Amino acid sequence: MDHSYRAVLAEHDGNTNRPNRGNAGQSLGKPPGDEGETMAPAGEAPARIYAFVEDLFFLAKIQETARKLGVKVEFVKTDKDVFERMNQNGNGKPSLIIVDLNNLGIKPLAVIPKLKSKLKKETNIIGFLSHVQGELKLKAQEAGCDMVLPRSAFSQNLAQLLRRHSVQEDEQPEHNQPN
Predict the structure, then answer these.
(1) What is this structure's pTM?
(2) Fewest CB within a 10 Å sphere: which of 38, 90, 137, 156?
(3) Residue 104 lies in a domain
(4) Phi/psi zone of residue 103: left (φ > 0), alpha (ψ -120 to 50 degrees), beta?
């Protein structure tokens, strides 16, 4: 068996850090206190991304991805929650609404048209579902979803989706400034 990887690890770590495993991040070249999490603090800016998600797996995945990107995502239970939080934040329309089309807590096919009629084209609504639910996908698109993705594609593209919609919110004020 080839143990050459141990030689590489020995250069960085050796056995010198074994008694003090609390500094494992430092042996990988990370500065103390830096977990490599966020690019910007998410708590300062009001949320412009809302999610109708109760599935704990996807809720945790969205939270973790948003935290790493420094994007604030608020989880809501009803369409009224979205409008209340928009008023509280005073930040205008959301840039993205994520809907789990299998969420039993809401009726997605009833909520999506309400959101779309009030928020118009400034807000993208992305739904996700099981890849075998072709009929539900068509109904969601008819209801007003801008994009409907299978769960696997949603998971794979989550960081890109959040990044794209957080960039749009950062760039909007610049476009409104006079030259």
Answers:
(1) 0.68
(2) 90
(3) yes
(4) beta
Q: What is the CATH number of the domain that holds 97?
A: 3.40.50.2300
pLDDT category at 177 given cuts 50, 70, 90 is very low
Number of domains in the chain: 1
SS (H, E, C) the chain: CCCHHHHHHHHHCCCCCCCCHHHHHHHCCCCCCCCCCCCCCCCCCCCCEEEECCCHHHHHHHHHHHHHHCCCEEECCCHHHHHHHHHHHCCCCCCEEEEECCCCCCCHHHHHHHHHHHHHHHCEEEEEECCCCHHHHHHHHHHCCCEEEEHHHHHHHHHHHHHHHHHHHHHHHHHHCCC
Residues, the chain: 179
Q: Is the pLDDT of residue 141 over 70?
A: yes
Strand partners, 147: 126
Q: What's the domain range around 167? A: 49-172
Residue 54 within any structural domain of the chain: yes
Q: Residue 28: which of 12, 8, 15 has the closest Cα?
A: 12
Q: Which of 114, 112, 116, 160 is nearest to 137 (CA)?
A: 112
